[in-house]
Amino acid sequence: MIKHFSVLYVGNIDLEDIGGDGTPADQRRYSNDRLIESFESATQLAKLMDGLGFYALWLAEHHFQREGYECIPNLILLSTHLAAQTERLKFGCAFNVVPMWHPLRLAEDYATADILTKGRVIFGVGRGYHSREVETFGAPVIDNDGNRELFEEQMEVIFKAFNQESFSHHGKHYDIPPSVPYRGYDLEEITLVPRPVNLPVETWQPIVSGRTVDFIAKHGIKGVVALTGETLVEQMFDRYREAAAEHGRALERGEDLALGVGFYIADSEAQAVERLRPYHDERYKWFAPFGFVRYVDEEGRPWGTPGAPARVPRIEDGVKQKAWICGPAGHFVEFLHDMERRYPGLEHIILQWAEGMPRDEFLGQVRLFAEEVMPAFGTAQP
Q1: pLDDT in tens, 152-210
Q2: In terms of DSSP H, where are the helices of the chain?
Q3: Residues 104 and 201 in one domain
């Protein structure tokens, strides 16, 4: 049953001249004074959510984004700061781009945050998709197989560091510890200092394609499926459950998964669609070229596959596919109750801040959602 409501904020600043016919994404460029507005937005959002009874604010790691869409480079650092500004709200890493880190530095930083925040930071991992980011840090992403191989070895190191009092690892990319003399003895193993105190570490990873599912199910990682049409949601949820069963984990449908959706609350669906349209279109101006349109055509073929559409979606497409929920609050309540019936193990809903939406307007939408939707699921202001 649904009981945790969260928000995903990827670090966008307020943009001007938005929408499909507005300033092209690659022509945007902002000063440092503007780009750091993302930290103030994160702070205001966190404080509001904390007072309204939300579960977690999820944040996205990205780099070099002078265009103003994703401006947060360090999730663990920001989350630790925000935890000190709030009382109950958790902070999710959506996601630490592991190939851009040394796995031991990532493990150390998370362990420190886990201790300082008393378990209020949620560990999340991803492989990355921006070539400008990942390749600049010296890791592969264009070479998909190389990226996957590196990521999986890094995760092996991280899990050892979290869960073993001392460990060693000798693989293709990492030799931990190196064979060197230390204080009169030969170094054979090391200990992460500090280790997280909340064990096992709850870990989340995005599910974008079927290739991801077996790995995360095998390692007990929880999955996030976001802004995805209902047909693909069903396929991904069922594949995760089946893969978990193959690795000895019997799960209810939807268990250990989170569903991310876009939304706009207004008096009618038509009114909500028109208000959301420019923000939705601004988002997909930026994201569609990365292949992040997870819809199917009338024959069930994912967009971009042979014969299926390969275009920037309209808001009507997203509403039809139930990736974006628009209309009165009661309409959203009905949608969520339907999700509960279809996926009785589903507990987590993550609301997407459309990248073009101004801060004040989104904060108003968050308040409306808390007041008019969350009480129907036993979640009310504390």
Answers
A1: 999 999 999 999 999 999 999 999 999 999 999 999 999 999 999 999 999 999 998 77
A2: 32-35, 37-52, 75-85, 103-116, 131-134, 144-163, 210-218, 230-246, 269-287, 315-320, 329-342, 359-372
A3: yes
